[in-house]
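Need residues for this backbone.
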């Protein structure tokens, strides 16, 4: 069997020592290793085991690996990287004499700093490095480091996911906690513009020192106490935490110290923590003595993981006696179970002896998990990616292999740089069913899971996937979350936490910015008239559609009613009854006069003019009915024109009657030349002349800008006015003005003739009737202009009825009184009395 040794460079912090809560132990605790991270090694071993047992991948090829510890130190990282490139124990770069040691690729490290330290050296030799660090501070890393790949998604998706998560829950008033270093500053500089663009305000931005800086601060508790106080006094209930292990560790110390100093739990309750993908419950950040329920209900982004079949069984099969030669495993076992083997050289505080019968599944999640964590899953995929790449090279056609290097590719002479062409385009489904491939930036073409962390009093926890940020799936929404699957901290009693600067502005109100405050802080101003707001926290109120109007609370638009004078409503019925009543009265008067047409009083007052005047008044009463009902084209044409012409005829008859009375009196004088003017010809001329002028005005009106049905949606707030638009307003007032002119002339002539002898005189009654007529129409103009809708129409109808009734009663009631009640006065002798 031919064998290729593939060393894998892994970042594995050293194992932790048992620790009590003494301040002097903090620094040594941080530098101790983390048992939980040993799962990274185990996932690597499990992946290689799977590949060796799979005859379809790399048949007749065995994978080898070497593991080096970086100790989070640049010098050691560079030293171990050079060891990978050297053949012997001594570091001699660019010299190889050991043909069995063939370095093909490197996996690591867990932090961006360690990964970049190694990449600066590995890039010189074009050795592929597949890192699994969450954050990469280098801009255009693929351009500057072409041999560098990451088995994690682009972090830009995480920033967008954080913003989408905040917007989903309407959290607009948040706090940000970052590490007090370059990475923290870059995190804030990238996230905060996105928050501002989406109208999310930052109530507080707190820089937390790394645990190494915190150790120095512990000599004086005042700086840390001030930071704890700042977090406590803030009104923000939601915090976005750049959850690098150093930052979280110091934050937890802040919580612990504050609770000890204050004697209360203020900082850790009533908060929703949103963690970045660095976050994980581990002894590195959560010491055994801390209550992890402070982070109950937290939400975090995580590299997408799926259940890898067989991995839990693989972990259960591990035993210290079966892992001979693996010094890492013995150290891990001792640290995880706080015990020591009898032959151990470690200086352990615990006096317990490791029996080897301890069970990994009995450990709390902060120490070790039986399911793959996100970073272990990335390592697992990285191993399979390299294996699939090698398999693709070995099974490719000669023509394709020539693209790699002139000539054929043989296994003993395979060079690391030859992997890049195949590595860039690699795409396969792993055993968990997930597709593994790189995007154009050399990063995993995948998204992030959104995890809800549920903790329990026994220091155990469960992670529940409640959503996803998957930009690589065009068929699915970019951001999705199942709100019902989230378990919030019991402080909130399972009610959705609120993160706003102030209470919502309810419908009917709009937001009004507060002076010298961020835009998330605002007052609530009621909507002005004719505007509404139908949602919470609207920036501006808006107007309803033209056929709608705001309700009383200004939070809803209601449909407008139709406004026109209807025959079925009380006002319309009243006016119809009045018009018909006056019409009946006019008809009765006409009947009385026709029945008594040969009596002296009727003959003396120009019988034909009297009949025609009564008929005109009757038509005027009927004319008022045209104004009632929904406006139509025909009724709009007839309303004002018919009214104007008929009224002109009526007033011109009054004028003719008045002039006839005056001329008749003057003709009775001896030698008067007025006798030739007394007769039907003059009266007919006056009536026809005056009426034709008004008819001409109406004809011009109808031919140029006639009235038409109109819908007025603006004049009344709650109703739509159905009206007849006058078309030409000047022509409308010309018609009214001409009527007024005739009325004034009639009034003037009658007024001048009021002192004529009573026997022949109707002038007094005509004067009184024209006074009523003019008074009604003078009051009509301001009333008409000050009303809208059906009331404006009602005003005009009332004026028509009132002025007609004035003429009817003032002129004809005295004659009816004599004819009906005092017939003895209706004699020729009384009418021919001499002075």
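Answer:
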């Amino acid at each position: 069997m031919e064998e290729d040794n593939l060393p894998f460079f892994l970042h594995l912090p050293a194992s932790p020592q048992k620790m009590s809560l003494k301040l002097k132990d903090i620094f040594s605790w941080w530098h101790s290793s983390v048992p939980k991270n040993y799962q990274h090694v185990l996932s690597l071993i499990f992946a290689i085991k799977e590949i060796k047992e799979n005859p379809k991948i790399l048949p007749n090829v065995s994978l080898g690996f070497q593991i080096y510890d970086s100790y989070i130190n640049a010098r050691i990282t560079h030293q171990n990287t050079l060891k990978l490139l050297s053949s012997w124990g001594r570091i001699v770069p660019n010299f190889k004499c050991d043909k069995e040691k063939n370095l093909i690729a490197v996996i690591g490290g867990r932090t961006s700093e360690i990964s970049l330290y190694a990449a600066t050296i590995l890039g010189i030799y074009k050795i592929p490095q597949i890192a699994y660090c969450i954050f990469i501070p280098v801009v255009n890393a693929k351009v500057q480091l072409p041999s560098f790949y990451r088995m994690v998604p682009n972090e830009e998706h995480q920033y967008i996911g954080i913003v989408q998560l905040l917007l989903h829950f309407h959290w607009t008033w948040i706090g940000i906690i970052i590490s007090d270093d370059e990475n923290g500053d870059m995190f804030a500089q990238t996230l905060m513009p996105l928050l501002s663009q989406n109208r999310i305000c930052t109530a507080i931005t707190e820089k937390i020192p790394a645990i190494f800086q915190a150790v120095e601060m512990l000599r004086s508790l005042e700086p840390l106490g001030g930071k704890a106080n700042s977090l406590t006094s803030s009104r923000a209930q939601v915090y976005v935490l750049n959850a690098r292990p150093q930052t979280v560790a110091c934050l937890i110390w802040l919580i612990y110290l504050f609770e000890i100093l204050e004697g209360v739990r203020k900082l850790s309750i009533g908060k929703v923590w949103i963690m970045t993908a660095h976050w994980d419950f581990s002894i590195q950040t959560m010491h055994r003595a801390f209550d992890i329920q402070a982070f109950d209900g937290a939400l975090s982004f995580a590299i997408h993981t799926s259940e890898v079949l067989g991995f839990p069984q693989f972990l259960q099969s591990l035993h210290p006696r079966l892992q001979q030669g693996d010094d890492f495993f013995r150290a891990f076992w001792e640290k995880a179970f706080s015990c020591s083997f009898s032959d151990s050289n470690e200086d352990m505080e615990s006096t317990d002896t490791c029996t080897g019968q301890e069970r990994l599944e009995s450990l709390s999640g902060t120490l070790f998990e039986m399911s793959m964590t996100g970073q272990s899953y990335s390592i697992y995929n990285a191993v399979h990616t390299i294996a699939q790449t090698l398999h693709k090279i070995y099974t490719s056609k000669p023509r394709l292999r020539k693209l790699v290097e002139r000539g054929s590719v043989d296994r003993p002479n395979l060079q690391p740089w030859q992997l890049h062409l195949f590595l860039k385009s690699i795409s396969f489904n792993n055993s968990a069913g997930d597709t593994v491939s790189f995007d154009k930036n050399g990063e995993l073409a995948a998204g992030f899971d959104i995890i809800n962390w549920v903790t329990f009093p026994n220091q155990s926890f469960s992670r529940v996937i409640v959503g996803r940020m998957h930009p690589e799936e065009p068929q699915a929404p970019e951001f999705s979350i199942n709100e019902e699957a989230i378990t919030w901290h019991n402080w909130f009693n399972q009610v959705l936490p609120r993160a706003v600067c102030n209470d919502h502005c309810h419908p009917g109100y709009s937001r009004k910015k507060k002076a010298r405050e961020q835009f998330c802080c605002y007052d609530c101003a009621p909507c002005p008239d004719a505007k509404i707001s139908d949602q919470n926290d609207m920036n501006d109120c808006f107007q309803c559609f033209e056929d709608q109007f705001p309700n009383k609370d200004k939070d809803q638009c209601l449909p407008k009613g139709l406004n026109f004078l209807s025959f079925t409503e009380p006002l319309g019925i009243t006016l119809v009854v009045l018009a018909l009543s006056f019409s009946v009265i006019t008809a009765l008067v006409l009947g009385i006069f026709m029945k008594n047409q040969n009596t002296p009083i009727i003959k003396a007052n120009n019988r034909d003019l009297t009949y025609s005047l009564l008929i005109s008044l009757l038509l005027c009463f009927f004319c008022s009915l045209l104004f009632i009902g929904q406006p139509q084209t025909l009724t709009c044409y007839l309303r004002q024109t018919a009214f104007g012409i008929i009224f002109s005829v009526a007033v011109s008859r009054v004028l003719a009657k008045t002039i006839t009375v005056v001329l008749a009196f003057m003709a009775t004088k001896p030698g008067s030349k007025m006798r030739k003017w007394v007769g039907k010809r003059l009266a007919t001329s006056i009536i026809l002349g005056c009426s034709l002028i008004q008819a001409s005005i109406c004809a011009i009106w109808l031919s140029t800008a006639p009235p038409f049905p109109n819908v007025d949606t603006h004049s009344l707030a709650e109703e739509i006015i159905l009206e007849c638009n006058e078309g030409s307003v000047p022509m409308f007032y010309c018609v009214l003005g001409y009527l007024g002119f005739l009325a004034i002339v009639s009034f003037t002539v009658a007024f001048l003739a009021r002192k004529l002898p009573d026997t022949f005189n109707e002038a007094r009654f005509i004067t009184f009737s024209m006074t009523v007529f003019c008074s009604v129409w003078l009051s009509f103009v301001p009333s008409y202009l000050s009303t809208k809708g059906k009331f404006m129409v009602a005003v005009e109808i009332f004026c028509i009825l009132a002025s007609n009734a004035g003429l009817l009663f003032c002129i004809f009631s005295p004659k009816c009184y004599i004819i009906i009640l005092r017939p003895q006065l209706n004699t020729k002798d009384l009418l021919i009395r001499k002075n």
